[in-house]
Inverse folding.
């Protein structure tokens, strides 16, 4: 028996991840504006919508022109289907036990599934027989990622099995690019060449394949020749393009907290575990009740800034010392008028106060931690309350 653990009452916790669905809608609309009429957009809302809330992100993206939704896990796909959203849904990551349990219901719900191996094909075919419904299959082709997907030379072996099975129908072929965020990398063209030859072999075995999809956020923005029938943006929907672009995209998540304490410390005073930071002068420091258990990466310690909204205006303040499990310390400066209870913007949109400094971004935190904004957004933990703007 599973006993649920009561969640913390969000009224008693100052930390918020404020989600702006309008930003996701606007970002989706900007991305669909890059596409030809025949190319559809699949909003990738896996990982709980990159931490923004899967259903919130899905609804916002559909409003912006998406007609497909993509998620990794079948359980997520079922949640989308049960929400009654008007969209095609694709799911692509499952193992045998999950498949036996959930794929029959997935197929009964009209959800498309990806197949990336002969074993996965057998799982889908069996689930389709149980559901008594033909499975709509997207064949994943491994062109160099080395994860899920059949190798191009396996098409001739797998094709006849798919063609002969009355319970499977190949409706799409797809692949995933390894290096699209580096437009100069020749790997993308090499992958596309492999993909195209595999698709030709697939068509020889099963007949015409209606859909091809290759482009992630980076390829959508830089390679219009790879848009094909369907594009699959993820991170760009949430306001963080993985390549330089003039397309107007804005972050959809703002992470905020409040100062729990403000105090004056002398010059040379150490801050945090390991004493990696000592104050260069007498200064005032603030304690923010947000730490690595909430999603702030410890590797970013002493390398980033936050925005503090004080009575006299918005001020940037560096985070100093090690990031702790539940708290960070920021250096407010010797003359700061900040007080306990003042709002702190860790990253995102601070509201556009005229002539004020902007808040830091998930990109800033990613650079500080030596990672990518995807990880920053999806690391914001469940104990941080999501507040969705209306």
């Amino acid at each position: 028996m599973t006993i649920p653990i009561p969640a913390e009452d969000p009224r008693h916790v100052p930390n918020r991840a404020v989600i702006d669905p309008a930003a996701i809608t606007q970002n989706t609309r900007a991305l669909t504006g890059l596409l030809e009429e025949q190319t559809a957009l699949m909003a990738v809302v896996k990982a709980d919508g990159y931490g923004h809330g899967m259903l919130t992100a899905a609804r916002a993206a559909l409003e912006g022109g998406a007609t497909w939704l993509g998620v990794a896990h079948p359980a997520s796909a079922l949640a989308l289907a049960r929400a009654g959203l008007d969209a095609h849904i694709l799911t692509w990551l499952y193992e045998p036990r999950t498949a036996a349990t959930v794929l029959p219901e997935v197929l009964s719900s009209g959800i498309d599934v990806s197949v990336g191996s002969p074993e996965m094909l057998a799982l889908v075919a069996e689930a389709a027989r149980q559901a008594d419904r033909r499975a709509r299959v997207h064949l994943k082709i491994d062109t160099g990622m080395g994860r899920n997907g059949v190798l191009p030379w396996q098409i001739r072996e797998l094709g006849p099995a798919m063609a002969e099975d009355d319970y499977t129908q190949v409706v799409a072929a797809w692949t995933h690019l390894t290096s699209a965020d580096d437009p100069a990398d020749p790997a993308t063209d090499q992958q596309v060449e492999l993909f195209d030859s595999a698709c030709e072999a697939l068509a020889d075995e099963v007949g015409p394949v209606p859909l091809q999809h290759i482009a992630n956020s980076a390829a959508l923005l830089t390679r219009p020749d790879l848009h094909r029938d369907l594009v699959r943006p993820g991170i760009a929907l949430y306001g963080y393009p993985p390549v330089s672009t003039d397309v107007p995209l804005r972050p959809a998540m703002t992470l905020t907290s409040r100062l729990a304490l403000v105090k004056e410390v002398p010059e040379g005073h150490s801050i945090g575990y390991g004493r990696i930071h000592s104050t260069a002068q007498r200064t005032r420091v603030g304690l923010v009740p947000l730490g690595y258990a909430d999603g702030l990466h410890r590797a970013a310690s002493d390398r980033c800034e936050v925005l503090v909204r004080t009575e006299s205006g918005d001020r940037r303040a560096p985070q100093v010392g090690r990031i702790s499990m539940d708290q960070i310390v920021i250096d407010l400066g010797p003359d700061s008028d900040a007080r306990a209870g003042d709002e702190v913007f860790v990253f995102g949109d601070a509201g556009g106060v005229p002539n004020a400094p902007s808040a830091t971004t998930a990109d800033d935190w990613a650079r500080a931690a030596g990672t990518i904004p995807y990880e920053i957004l999806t690391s914001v933990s469940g104990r941080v309350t999501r507040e969705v703007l209306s």
